[in-house]
């Protein structure tokens, strides 16, 4: 491994550690090459997401997204120009990471450089596919997932994104992004001002419970595909990611959908409990699990 590639993997690891505590925690179950590849892929995903969220004008954010798209092009053409691009290019070559999902993701985050509004549940589903399901589709070969895993990978990404949307709803609306469908808000009698104020009432709980039900359905739909992943370390990593995100959703439900006072996070001790259960072969998401 040359010096620039080694540096790229070190930078990717650090970016993963700082950017996603849940994924970084779960990634330690992967074997060395898959873990390094996962860090390289995550670092690219983080770069894409940060481009759409960066300060400045929409034009400035669009330019950052354009540069991310160019970096993806160089990584797949075998002509990387930075350490992180070298790491991604290596992961692409080693594991045969598909390009189309990552191009879809860049296009999806590019649509977020200005204000965001979602009209219908169907439109929300397309958004979740673009920014989250694509991640599972891109990672599938790296994890050693079998052919046909695509549907379950997409379901898991959908579930995790719905969890994020529910957890971050007030923060998002204050950033002029409303991911909850306008048709659902109207039906519940909820305004954007209600969300910005953190209005916790029966209207909100009814709508939030609909989002949670859709997320739980998607978490369940992912299980057959996870079970089919042959490498034990990969399978267990994905199970732990699912368990960690579903635990966030469960905590939201335990708080009666009060996501307004503070950001819902899972403690390290709880993550260790989840990891112990998952490694032992138990399913923390099973009915009756505590």
List the helices and strands and how they pair.
Elements: H1 3-19, H2 21-27, H3 32-53, H4 58-77, H5 83-95, H6 100-110, E1 116-117, H7 121-143, H8 150-167, H9 169-174, E2 177-178, H10 182-188, H11 192-197, H12 202-227, H13 232-254, H14 268-279
Parallel strand pairs: 1-2
Helix pairs in contact: 1-2, 1-3, 1-5, 2-13, 3-4, 3-5, 3-6, 3-7, 4-5, 4-6, 6-7, 7-8, 8-12, 8-13, 12-13, 13-14
Mean pLDDT: 93
- Give a short account of the largest sheet: 2 strands, parallel
Poorly predicted spans = none
The total of beta strands comes to 2
Helix content: over 70%
**In percent, how much strand structure appears in the residues?**
under 5%
What's the N-to-C terminus distance? Answer: 45 Å
With helices defined by DSSP (H or I, 4 residues minimum), what is the helix count?
Answer: 14
Q: Could you spell the SSE succession in H and E letters?
A: HHHHHHEHHHEHHHHH
- Overall geometric form: globular
Provide the structure class: mainly alpha
Rg, rounded, reads: 19 Å
Strand order, main sheet: write it out: 1-2
List keywords for this structure.
290 residues; 73% helix; mainly alpha; 14 helices; two-stranded parallel sheet; globular
Give a brief rundown of this model:
The chain is mainly α.
Describe it.
- With 290 residues, the chain is an all-alpha fold.
- Helix content is 73%, strand content 1%.
- The chain has 14 helices and two strands, in the order H-H-H-H-H-H-E-H-H-H-E-H-H-H-H-H.
- Strands 1-2 form a two-stranded parallel sheet.
- It starts with a helix and ends in an 11-residue tail after the last helix.
């Amino acid at each position: 491994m040359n010096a620039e590639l080694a540096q790229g993997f070190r930078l990717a690891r650090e970016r993963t550690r700082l950017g996603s505590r849940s994924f970084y925690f779960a990634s330690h179950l992967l074997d060395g090459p898959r873990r390094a590849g996962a860090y390289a892929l995550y670092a690219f995903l983080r770069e894409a997401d940060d481009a759409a969220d960066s300060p400045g004008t929409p034009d400035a954010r669009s330019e950052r997204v354009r540069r991310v798209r160019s970096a993806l092009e160089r990584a797949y053409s075998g002509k990387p120009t930075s350490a992180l691009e070298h790491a991604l290019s290596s992961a692409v070559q080693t594991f045969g990471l598909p390009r189309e999902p990552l191009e879809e993701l860049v296009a999806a985050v590019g649509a977020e450089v200005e204000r965001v509004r979602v009209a219908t549940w169907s439109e929300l589903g397309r958004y979740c596919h673009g920014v989250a399901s694509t991640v599972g589709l891109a990672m599938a070969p790296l994890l050693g997932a079998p052919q046909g895993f695509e549907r379950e990978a997409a379901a898991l990404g959908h579930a995790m994104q719905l969890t994020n949307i529910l957890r971050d709803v007030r923060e998002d609306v204050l950033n002029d992004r409303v991911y909850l469908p306008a048709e659902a808000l109207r039906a519940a009698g909820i305004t954007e001002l209600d969300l910005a104020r953190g209005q916790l009432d029966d209207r909100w709980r009814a709508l939030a419970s609909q989002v949670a039900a859709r997320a739980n359905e998607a978490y369940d739909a992912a299980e057959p595909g996870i079970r089919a992943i042959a490498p034990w370390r990969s399978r267990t990593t994905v199970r732990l990611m699912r368990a960690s995100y579903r635990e966030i959703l469960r905590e939201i439900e335990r708080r009666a959908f009060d996501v307004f006072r503070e950001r819902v996070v899972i403690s390290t001790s709880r993550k260790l409990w989840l990891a112990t259960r998952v490694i032992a072969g138990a399913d923390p998401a099973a009915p009756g699990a505590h």
